[in-house]
Amino acid sequence: MAKQPMLKFVTVGKEMPEKREADQRKEDFAEIYGEYAAEKAAEQAGRCSQCGVPYCQSHCPLHNNIPDWLKLTAEGRLREAYDLSQATNTFPEICGRICPQDRLCEGNCVIEQSGHGTVTIGSVEKYITDTAWDNGWVMPIAPAVERPESVGIIGAGPGGLAAADMLRRAGLQVTVYDRYDRSGGLMMYGIPGFKLEKDVVVRRNKQLEDGGVKFVLNCNVGEDISFAEIREKHDFVVIATGVYKSRELDGPGSGANGIIRAIDYLTASNRKSFGDDVPEFDSGELSAEGKRVVVIGGGDTAMDCVRTATRQGATSVKCLYRRDEVNMPGSMREVQNAKEEGVDFVWLSAPKGFSDHKGAVGGVMVQKMRLGAPDATGRQSPEVIENADYVEDADMVIKALGFSPEDLPTLWDTPELEVTRWGTVKANRTHETALENVFAVGDIVRGASLVVWAIRDGREAAEAILERALATNTVAAE
Asked: Is residue 140 part of a domain?
């Protein structure tokens, strides 16, 4: 009997795709991981233990059929592996690149828990879909029947685009409105190229456009078009704006020049990579070149900022975080990449204020912290250590403290759009809001979260809209 291709984790160790050396990758914004060769992808996929209860799948927000497409990959049946992968995930090649697998599927892999090293799920997922694109297996959007229902989607990020893809494939007429000049949201302007090269996003945008999705770009809802007008134009509306309002830092000197928001910094860097004219970057205001940079925050956005600063030629890059490394909310894989690239992490440190040298920031006043009793979430709360303050010298300070929702009811003159006390839009389990036939997905409902959760929300909202459209059409026919 031929040997089964799976269960190789006992004899075959975990092996990620080859990663470029830190000194080399700091010179550009290209992705740092290479691609698996076919044999290596099959070998690593073959390490899967084919659990009866796959925790990798249950801890994936999309509940991807991970063990099944790993088995197909191990057997060399890549076309089938791709078909299975994309059945539950609109953008598997994007999730394979930017999902924090160490906190989701890979972090809950059974063989990881048993000490054998996780299956490299994300890298195999990326390999499957990149191979599918290379071989022409990714099918264009070609609805079998055109339907009359019209859907307006506000926001061209992952949630909005996932909904657009499903709805258009079902034949609905879809228009996406977005404030930026390119579709993709934070995938385009917030996430650096070394994690997600932009041609990967552009390729999906083109597929949607070629498939009949209409894009209205450089469009600020509430200014260029009212929310009421969008509702009048369309049978259904999906709010997928994301959260772009940066959390601020108070304290002495907080208004000094050189203290900037992470979203502004990352957007300028990504625009520059596109070849756009970015005066704030060219003037040095949003460039780290030759500067001592301090980034405040411990999430994935902070990691994007510190790693961007090293590539821009900062003389030093430090990351201040008020808890310790174990309690960081960001991906541990990204922290390791940042360390390799020369970033200095200053744990248990929080900003108290800023030293101001003739209007320009000269440093961060730092309070040293210790971890005390757990808070409501179970994490230990940071407490100030008295008389341990010091100043961390800096020419540029980047605030990466997370994002809050904009006040949509006021901006859109729609007070009947119900929001929570945090300002996020209220939506039920089908993602419908207090307004009939108006749905909301992604960060504007969840608060700042992951791309994969936005994709899940977008797909679920699309399913709810399709169900209602079909039911309405049936009633009308009768």
From this structure: no
> Which pLDDT does position 475 carry in this prediction?
42
The parent domain of residue 464 ranges over 150-243+405-477
Task: Indicate if 385 and 290 belong to the same structural domain.
Answer: yes
Residue 3 has pLDDT above 70, yes or no: no
Examine the domain organization and report whether 182 and 263 are in the same domain.
no
232 and 272 together in one domain:
no
* 13 and 32 assigned to the same domain: yes
pLDDT on residue 7: 62
Considering the entire predicted model, what is its pTM?
A: 0.93
Residue with tokens 């977005």: 178
Mean pLDDT of the chain: 94
Q: Is 278 left (phi over 0), alpha (psi -120 to 50) or beta?
A: beta
